[in-house]
Structures are given as C-alpha cells and as structure tokens.
Amino acid sequence: KVGWGTEWNNVVFSDEKKFNLDGADGFRCYWHDLRKEEQIFSKRHSGVGTVMIWAAFSSKGKTTLSFVKPNSTSANYQKSLEEHLILFWERIGGENGIFMEDNAPIHKASSTKSWFSARNINVMDWPAYSPDSNPIENVLGQISRIVYGVGRQYNSVYDLKKAIEEIWEKKNQPYLNT
C-alpha cells in the first residue's frame, strides 16, 4: 500500500501551545496602516503571565481545552490526558484510533508510554528530529493569530484564558476537517 487514505480519519492530533499576556512568542512586529498612529507594545519581565494549553482533535470531534503548567512533568501530562482525552477517546470509538503527539520529553517518558499502554491507546511512531507537520499546529497557530489580532495584549491570565477558550469553542468540525 502506497499511503494512507481513510486511515487518517482514525488519528487524534494533539499538541501544546504557549501564550503570553504580551503576545505570542517571537512577537516582534505587526502590520499597521501607515496613515494611522503606530501602536506601542510593552513586554513584562520574568515570564509573568504565561498560559500553556493542550488540545486534540480528529475527524470525529475535538477535546475540551486543557490548561497545563508551562514546565509540565510527565505526571502532569498524564493527568491532563486522563481528564481531557479519555472521555473523548471513548466517545469517538478510539479502539481503532491512533494518537499523534510530538517527541517532547514528557510524551516519550517511560511512564507516559506505560500510561498509553495500560489504556490500549495506540500512539503513532514519530521519528526523532522530524518536521512538526501535525495539523493541530495550524489550528493552534490560527487561534494565536486571532487571540493577538491587531497587536492585542492582555491584562490578566484570566482574560487570556477566556479568549483562548472562546476561540477554541468556535472551531467547528468542518473547519477541523480541512
């Protein structure tokens, strides 16, 4: 068999993304109308106001959004999976599913591998140092562009989380399937 076709319908794509009150990582410039006043953006020191999310989707739906610690451990990751992946996995008929994640250390920890094995969740093999071509990267990138649209910054972690959740909830299945 040359390649996959409908098999991709059984894949659950997952990843984490970091958001900051002051803008996306690498946020250095923005497009603006030259006829209008230029905006000034500030940066907070010491990494204050960071939000990290974990999310997943497939051709059959999406998980609830999980807010995780920016420097998460494999135990934190497994707890998040337990709270946000398991019900989704069962709802979409995950017994034929394949879970896709990148090679982050918390994903490849032996305890995480054991966690997946104990729940009979098949994890896609992902070569080391391979390009990150997981489709959820596009979804999370679009969320970031909307969250920080027109140079928006946030005053509180609560407001940033609320904005991220609202945008995630609006991502419907036809959009995810593209």
**Which radius of gyration do the C-alpha atoms yield?**
18 Å
Counting helices, strands and paired strands, the structural category is alpha/beta
Strand content: 15-25%
Task: Give the integer mean of the pLDDT values.
Answer: 87
What is the rounded distance between the termini? 24 Å
> What is the helical fraction, as a range of percent?
25-40%
Order of helices and strands: EEEEHHEHHEHHH
Largest sheet: 6 strands, mixed
* Contiguous uncertain segments of 5+ residues: none
Please tally the β strands and state the result: 6
Question: Quaternary state, please?
Answer: single chain
Principal-axis shape: globular
Description:
- The protein contains 7 helices and 6 strands; from the N terminus they run ββββααβααβααα.
- By secondary structure, the protein is an alpha/beta fold.
- Strands 1, 2, 3, 4, 5 and 6 form a 6-stranded mixed β-sheet that branches.
- Strand 2 (50-58) and strand 3 (61-62) form a beta hairpin.
- The chain starts with 10 loop residues before the first strand and ends with a helix.
